[in-house]
Design brief:
- This protein is an alpha/beta fold.
- The chain has one domain: Glycoside hydrolase/deacetylase (TIM Barrel, Alpha-Beta Barrel), CATH 3.20.20.370.
- The protein is built from nine helices and seven strands, in the order H-E-H-E-H-H-E-H-E-H-E-H-E-H-E-H.
- The strands form two sheets. Strands 1, 2, 3, 6 and 7 form a five-stranded parallel β-sheet that branches. Strands 4-5 form a two-stranded parallel sheet.
- The longest helix is centred in the first third of the chain and has 23 residues.
- The chain is globular.
Length: 213
Amino acid sequence: MDLNNKTGAEDSGQLKEAVDFVDSSVVREAPRIALTFDDGPNAQCTGRLLDGLKKRGVKATFFLIGMNAKDNPDLVKRIYEEGHLIGNHTYHHVDITKKSDEEARKEIEDTDKVISSVTGEHVEYMRPPFGVWQKNLELEMDVMPVMWSVDPLDWTTENTDEIVNKVVTETEENDIILLHDCYESSVDAALRIVDILQKKGFEFVTADKLIME
């Protein structure tokens, strides 16, 4: 018997066992993505969306329009209490680059006042309508802009399949998905998107988890 070959085989077997042990004991982190909703809260759609997210154990981010939040304080409260992140989307859904600095600040501050009156907390994150932002406002105000990386343009179509297919084929790790919780078709699409991407191994987190870590 070739003792050298035997020893080599034993070493190889022991090494494989060690690798298998380490491999099986390492907890692999799921790729994380964020689902975000603009323009709510909406009396017809947001509640159903929240029901679906709760059933699936998913936390999302809601960028609220101030006047809609004022009209739907119960939904604002529910979004907050169910662990979702709330962001600012101006009071009247305006392009703040076309407003004076004073008007732009008022749009953000008025929305913050409405939301904080319900949650008791200052709104730290901002999604500027149309994705346009005044950098000086970021310096002047205690608010951070949050953009997006996947946009199925759900507001342009009621075709749920089209919305779903665009998102699930484009989304990758650390992507921020933009949808709206003021359209029935978008709510239907959002819940289907969650089901599909969860099966693919993605973990849904609030937007701050992606931009702050």
